[in-house]
Amino acid sequence: DVARLGAEMAERVQRAPKMFERAAVVVDFGYLSACPSVETARSLLAALRDAGVLPVALAFGTTEIEQLARSLELPLLAKFRTQYEPSSTPAEIADPAPAVRTDPAPAPATVEKPAAAVSMLHTQPVRSGQQLYAAGRDLTLCTGVGAGAEVIADGSIHIYGALRGRALAGAQGDASARIFCREFHAELVAIAGQYRVMEELPDELRGRAVQIWLDDGKLRLEEIGS
């Protein structure tokens, strides 16, 4: 459904422009029962561009997808999907990351949080494929964030459980926002558009209680209590 996908991406960009505006997107057709036609794929790429992101490649899947990439004059990223899929039960398989920024993110602007803002409290686990957004406030989660899930807040994010998915704080540019989690296994963390992905995260912090914040425009990660 090209129109629906375009609308969902436009909403994502609007929610977190510092993170997703003009972000590079890899399109993965691998989960479909049949490879789409060139015309359908072109329509999707156009819809994504209209939404504010930049499709740059297809994720490798089949020989048909390889031929489609040639017709669209796009490269294939053969190892893209495996970066986001743990080798565990099918229910825990993560959705491919919707956007990966390859160009340097702009310096975040400082945004003051409203004094009356109240944290959004969520008591259920955030499971693979789900997205939770706290607009104009902090987000507090009593449990964990599963692989392939995404939590976003305009303020800070507090996770009293394991973070296995993606966490984006300061989505509207609040550089003072922070991320706290009790058990760190993140796929991606970001504050005010500055982000780091799984491959860039320190191994020594895996499974630890961690806080993430911006220091002079650079993302800092540190074990809580160290």
How much helical structure, as a percent, in the residues? 10-25%
Q: Care to count the β-strands?
A: 14
Count of alpha/pi helices: 4
Which spans of ≥5 residues are poorly predicted at pLDDT below 50? Answer: 80-111
- Helix-strand pattern, N to C? HHEHEHEEEEEEEEEEEE
Radius of gyration: 18 Å
Main sheet: strand order: 4-6-8-10-13-14
Strand content: 25-35%
Could you give the distance between the termini?
48 Å
Shape: elongated
Q: Mean pLDDT, rounded to whole units?
A: 81
Structural class: alpha/beta
Largest sheet: 6 strands, mixed
Oligomeric description of these chains: single chain
Keywords:
elongated; alpha/beta; 14 strands; 226 residues; 4 helices
Q: What is the gist of this entry?
A:
19% of the residues lie in helices and 28% in strands. By secondary structure, it is an alpha/beta fold.
Protein described:
- With 226 residues, the protein is of the alpha/beta class.
- Helices cover 19% and strands 28% of the residues.
- It contains 4 helices and 14 strands.
- It has a 6-stranded mixed beta sheet with strand order 4-6-8-10-13-14, with no helix packed on it.
- Strand 2, helix 4 and strand 3 form a beta-alpha-beta unit.
- Helix 1 packs parallel to helix 3.
- The longest helix has 14 residues.
- The chain starts with a helix and ends with a strand.
- The relative contact order is 0.12.
How would you summarize the topology of this molecule?
Blueprint: H1 2-15, H2 17-20, E1 24-27, H3 38-51, E2 54-59, H4 63-72, E3 76-77, E4 120-122, E5 131-134, E6 139-141, E7 150-153, E8 157-163, E9 166-169, E10 179-184, E11 188-191, E12 194-197, E13 210-215, E14 218-223
Parallel strand pairs: 1-2, 2-3, 4-6, 5-7, 6-8, 7-9, 8-10, 9-11
Antiparallel strand pairs: 10-13, 11-12, 13-14
